[in-house]
Amino acid sequence: MSGGVVRLRHSVAVRMVMASALLSVLVAAVFALEQLAVSSFRDASRQEARAKDVGRAAVGLEAVVLDLESGLRGYVISGNRRLLGPWRQTRAALPGRVADLEHLVSADPAQLERVRELATEIEAYQRDYALPLIAIAGQDPAAARTPIASAEGETRIESIRRRFTRLLALEDARAAASTASANSRSQRAHALGIGGLAFSAALVLVLGFYLAQSIGRPLRAMAAAAAELAAGKLSVRITGSGPGEVGELTGAFNSMADSLERDRRALETQNQLLLEQSRLKSELVSIVSHELRTPLTSIIGFTNVLLNRPLDQAARQRYLEIIEEQARRLASMTEDFLDLQRIEEGRLELRQELIDLVALLREQEQLFAAQSTRHTLKFELPPDRPLPVRGDPDRLTQVLGNLISNAIKYSPAGGEVELAGEGSGDVVRVRVRDHGIGIPADQQPRIFTKFFRGEAPTRGISGTGLGLALAREIIEAHGGRIGFSSAANQGSTFWIELPAAAKYTGAQG
Amino acid sequence: MHLNRALIVSLAAALMVLSVTPVSFALTGPGVIRITERHVGGGRVDIGRPGPSIGDVQVLRELLYNTNITRSPIGRAELTCTYTGTTARHCVGTFFLPKGEIVVTGPLLYRQLFELAVVGGTGLYSNVRGTLTVTSLNSGSHATDLLLFRLVP
User: Fold this and answer.
1) Which of B111, B114, B146 is facing A132, going by the closest CB pair?
2) What's chain B's average pLDDT?
3) Which of B33, B35, B113, B146 to substitute to test the interface with A, most A CBs within 10 Å?
């Protein structure tokens, strides 16, 4: 589970997705900043436009107030009541103008308060000054024309104008502040946007470099290695794993190269074996020719003698026995070949019978004791204790006979051949030991190879080289093992181990 | 014992000092007072030839109102005007307001609209300066004037 997590964390796909996500976030942030800048500019433009509208409305209202004062002054000076007509019209327009201005600054409570104060002062000008002065002028024009009356009007108008000036100055200041703020925010947003774009570009470069390093380079190395592999250089490997999937691909390539190299070695070994077997078969042909020719020559020769010469009964009997012996030898050799063929084809059939190996050994001792006067077969068997196993008596007899025969054949100088048997736990073990020529160390690994005869041919020792190969196949088919220990000129000890048919304990020996 | 007596004497002296020291409630900045007055009485001392002439003395008595707050008078005013011509007068007056008095003086040419100098005052208006503009809102027996004090402390 943890391995899976680690692989996921380091996978190229995850890294690419994370890098793409980071890039997307950066681009989105840059876009948002640009939008913020545009929005700020839009707000500032709106504020500026509003300031202009407020300015226009305020100037218009101020003009109306000045018109009122001018109209009032004209009437007071001239005493012409017709001049009051336009004055009244102008005065009637005042509430609408004030309402327009209030509407324009309604979003700004402080400015709205200033406009209302301005409206109050204009109202006071009319109520406390203009209207009474018109009335005074109607009663006593001279009283309305005094400098005091003029000065009062100027004072009031001047106060109203100061309010207009302050209102416009504040509106302009706010617009300027808004513009400055928008500019500042815009500059910041642009700076951040440029920084973000630069960082994005750098990230893209880093990503490209990363891809070139972590994917491109391993892939190039892999392509080069694949070319070498295709050219037959199976020892080529890719060093450095790379991240995630690239590492897995590199590992798979190396595993494939390992497998190819291993297979080629196996093929080479197999080829060597085939060559060896071919050589051995050629040798076999020679051996078989020789081995078959020898008994056949004897058979043909003695048969000719029997057919063409008058012989006494004793001679005829002896010649016939020789012919029979050689024929049996031929039959045995033929049987070995057939056994080998059966084993190789998987057709070897074993009977399952309860057998006492001690009895088998004694039979073989009796059989081989008469064959050589120079060899002594010595027994080391447990007294009155059987060595029971389950198996095919003919095949096991064949194995024991082969081992004893080899011990005799490879002890050309004669001597003791020791036959030993013992049971231990679930295993029965039999040893055949000779004091003959032994097996050189360099030949020991191939001793169970079919048709391998070592130095036997040069020493004039007959045989086909199949005996031990067959013995191993038979013993292993019984679930047992066969082995040996040997040294050149010091003799050999071959042993077999078979599963015991009954358990042996320490008390049983 | 001596300590208690000294303490009592000290406290009594402090109370006496506090009781005779006027509490300052003077104006701290420019201000405008807008009120109205209604003529309620007065008279003229006719000196010399009959009718308004130099030397005549006119006394005006007014009640002061701030109708935004209450319909009742909030104070009164008394002006004494000495005729310096057939219509021109020089007036001195005192306006008795709830938080102090304002003293004005100056020429009066037309009763409908005139301006007097504020030369001082008491209470809230102590040492106050400025102008008083009087505008007639209507005439007759219930003549009403608009009083506009523009004060500077």
Assistant:
1) B146
2) 84
3) B113
**Interface contact flag, B110 A142, Cβ < 8 Å:** yes
Strand locations in A381-456 (E): 388-391, 415-433
Category of B106 on φ-ψ map: left (φ > 0), alpha (ψ -120 to 50) or beta: left
Structure tokens at A284: 């076999």
Contacts of A260 (CB under 8 A, 6+ apart): A229, A234
Alpha carbon distance B103, B130 (integer Å): 10
Q: What is the pLDDT of residue A417?
A: 92
**Average of per-residue pLDDT across A43-66:** 85
Nearby residues of B60 by Cβ (< 8 Å), 6 or more positions away: B39, B42, B77, B78, B79, B80, B81, B93
Angle at B58 between CA B52 and CA B63, to 5 degrees: 135
Q: Do B110 and A139 touch (CB under 8 A)?
A: no
Indicate the average pLDDT of chain A.
84
Q: Taking an 8 Å Cβ-Cβ cutoff, which residues of chain A contact chain B?
A: 124, 128-129, 132-133, 135-136, 139-140, 142-144, 146, 148-149, 151-152
For A196-205, what is each residue's pLDDT tens digit?
Answer: 788 888 888 8
**SS3 for B63?**
strand
* Cα A480 to Cα A40: distance, rounded to the nearest angstrom: 95
Question: Is the pLDDT score of B12 beyond 60?
Answer: no
Distance between CA atoms of A343 and A338, rounded to whole angstroms?
Answer: 9
Q: Tell me the C-alpha distance between A125 and B146, whole Å.
A: 12
Answer yes or no: pTM beyond 0.80: no
The Cα–Cα gap between A223 and A191 comes to 45
Measured CA to CA, the distance from residue A433 to residue B40 in angstroms comes to: 165
List B94's β-bridge partners, or say none: B78, B103
Domain extents in chain B: 26-152
- Residues making up chain A, counted from first to last: 509
Amino acid at A52: K
How many Cβ atoms from other residues are within 10 Å of residue A105's Cβ?
Answer: 24
Q: What is the CATH number of domain B26-152?
A: 2.40.480.10
Residue A194: closest CA among A202, A182, A184, A183: A202
Q: Looking at chain B, which residue has its C-alpha nearest residue A142?
A: B110
Rounded distance, CA A458 to CA A464, Å?
A: 14
Note whether A215 and A249 are within 8 A (CB): no
Is B138 within 8 Å of A148 when comparing Cβ atoms? no
Q: How many CB atoms lie within 10 A of CB B34?
A: 13
Distance CA A484, CA A463 (A): 19
Q: Which of chain A's residues have a Cβ under 8 Å away from the Cβ of B32?
A: none
For chain A, the distance separating the N- and C-terminal CA atoms, rounded to the nearest angstrom, is: 56
Q: Determine phi and psi for B143, rounding to 5 degrees.
A: -60, 135
HEC-encoded secondary structure of B107-148: EECCCCEEEEEEEEECHHHCCCEEEEEEEEEECCCCCEEEEE
At B25, is the secondary structure helix, strand, or coil? coil
